[in-house]
């Protein structure tokens, strides 16, 4: 009798009974992987999920970063790398699970080229470099939508110049994605003391070519990518003129206006003319800019947060971490402002959890993958390249990852090396204990209660 | 006050958006919220208990009620619960859950499944 009643309930609800707004509210709370699957429930759902307005709303609700991980085999970095995604939504410890699982990226992803190296990402679009037809190319792709496009080569065809991509940003006003690259004179071609201003090229996603916008008023410091926040890229810089005594060490590049401006930094120690990039790292998380400073003379790492964007007085020294292992390399906070436990990716390959209340740092164990890895913060989204590119003509450049021609050797490679994870390591002479789960071990929720 | 539409609801006699059963579940929520606002754990337990007695399919009706009554916290809570319930489940499960039918052409769906084989890995059992 009861089952009859329930079946009745089923029949009562039809596609039209649930208002679109309600469906949207539910879908906005789904993680990307489920969203990609669930859009095939029916055509209405497919249309909702594919709508650019919906993807923008979904992205806006996901301020915490996930990670894309690339494992590196030390004897040949970039070759035979495996790629995984670690979604932050899986790190929710309310369920008292101890592992956040790593998800392997699809097999077809590896067909984008050989020796793929993750560069940077913006709004769910991944930028990576790869070797295709023996040439190095830069690609932008979205793994959730399965699209990719190859970027054209630098505008400056002079062999003396070396293109380095410096940042990937987005202008909400014009809905354009842009990459900036530095064209630096190869050091072999100039006097040792000659330090010219770097030429800057900008590429608007979808355009036919890069555009030279002139020389930067600053020289970029370090190999790290600029931090994107509020429609601008922020980089650590040094003035070109070494006699310049101003203490500017951060600049912003407005994506829409394509202009460099000095940006106020926190009142950190006086920087000499040749301060080391290892001591300072700029980043953004939860909508705030932060800066980590770790001088060799100091025993701790100071983290400053800019509480009000653009306001120099709002830089606050928020955390002081007396953990010497933090003193090298960049720090990426993943979920600042989302509660007491802040996850940070340190030095590209070490995940830590910092508890703001107890001021304790805990190393987070990553299991099941080769321990040498490179990771970049990444917010998965369904931003379609078709909506991201400017101009109708450029849509022809967008290809589907699924359509990449499969080479038999790649399939064999995937099946042998990549889906049998430990055969590869064993062959390379590394012996790893077999893991039970592939993922990250989260801090023990029970222990946390006693802090 | 959170319940601007409640007064309207009681005034409106021809209301079939919110059945009585749903109203008794949704309306006491704000009072409970205020009482145990500070303690998240208690709130969680209360919410879990509430939902144990409610069938998954009923959740969609609760959402409609919360939406009609303009009650944002309840709407957020119910939507999150539905999202958690359908997360990582197969497409068929989701269809059954909402009582929906696929209106794709037979070939279309297969083609789409192949395209995103990745997202179909690691799906929970129905």
TrEMBL record, chain A:
CDD domains: F-box_AtFBW1-like (cd22157). Coiled coil: none annotated. InterPro entries: F-box-assoc_dom_typ1, F-box-assoc_interact_dom, F-box-like_dom_sf, F-box_dom, SCF_F-box_component. SUPFAM superfamilies: F-box domain (SSF81383). Residues 12-57 form the F-box domain. It comes from the Eukaryota. PANTHER family: BNACNNG10540D PROTEIN (PTHR31672), F-BOX PROTEIN CPR30-LIKE (PTHR31672:SF13). NCBIfam families: F_box_assoc_1 (TIGR01640). This is F-box domain-containing protein. It comes from Quercus rubra. The lineage of its organism: Eukaryota, Viridiplantae, Streptophyta, Embryophyta, Tracheophyta.
Automatic annotation (TrEMBL), chain B:
InterPro entries: SKP1, SKP1-like_dim_sf, SKP1/BTB/POZ_sf, Skp1_comp_dimer. One of its GO terms (biological process) is ubiquitin-dependent protein catabolic process. Pathway: Protein modification; protein ubiquitination. SUPFAM superfamilies: Skp1 dimerisation domain-like. Transmembrane segments: none annotated. Residues 75-118 form the SKP1 component dimerisation domain. This is SKP1 component dimerisation domain-containing protein.
